[in-house]
Amino acid sequence: MVKLKTPTKRFRQTRLPAVLGLFAIACASSATYPISDGMLALGTWGGDNAGVIVTDSAAHVHVGCTFGDMPGHIRLDADGRFAVDGSYMLRAYPIQVGPSVPARFSGRVVGGTLTLSVAVNDTVTKTAVALGPITVEYGRQPQMGPCPICRSPRRWQEGRP
Fold first, then answer.
1. Which of 84-88, 96-100, 147-151 has the lowest mean pLDDT?
2. Which positions ≥6 away from 25 have C-beta within 8 Å?
3. Which long-range contacts (CB under 8 A, 24 or more apart) does 90-97 make?
4. Residue/partner pairs of 96-102 with CB below 8 Å, 24 or more apart
């Protein structure tokens, strides 16, 4: 029969706490990453003064006191990039003024981070407006500062696109 050695008192007092401490640090610092299935992950992506809410049928974007929508479930290329057309509301808070205007959303996902830029064709003032790039983290709540408007559009809650 083989007799196993029991850990020494010195090991239990010095090395064991160090090993357990490293294990605890590794577990505490693990990030939440979206499931990578070639699509922009469903859920909330948040950052400072920015947010993206992704459903299986659309994505709703907030940058400061503005917002826009990207239709469909967003497909990512092999490098995690996308570029889709949508609409944008440049004058949204405190009172929504004017129509939604055409916009082009382009972004890249790396791990749990989405970097997004929006090119808005402001057909009202006949100017081009660039928003971003913004950086948002998957699973983080948006911190919207003075414009507390980051939420799913009411029409989505009513079942309309």
1. 147-151
2. none
3. 90/66, 90/120, 90/122, 90/129, 91/66, 92/65, 92/66, 92/67, 92/147, 92/149, 93/65, 93/66, 93/147, 93/149
4. 98/124, 99/123, 99/124, 100/68, 100/69
CA nearest to 60, candidates 124, 129, 144:
144
Q: Which string of DSSP letters, residue by residue, matches 102-146?
A: EEEEEEEEETTEEEEEEEEEETTTTEEEEEEEEEEEETPPPB-TT
Written as six digits, the tokens of 84 are: 């889709």
* Residue 37 pLDDT: 84
Average pLDDT, rounded, for the chain? 81
Cα gap 112→91, rounded to integer Å: 30
Rounded Cα distance, 63 and 118, in Å: 9
Structure tokens at 59: 């994505």
Confidence at 42, pLDDT banded by 50, 70, 90: very high
Is the pLDDT assigned to residue 76 strictly greater than 50? yes
Q: Is pLDDT of 45 > 90? A: yes
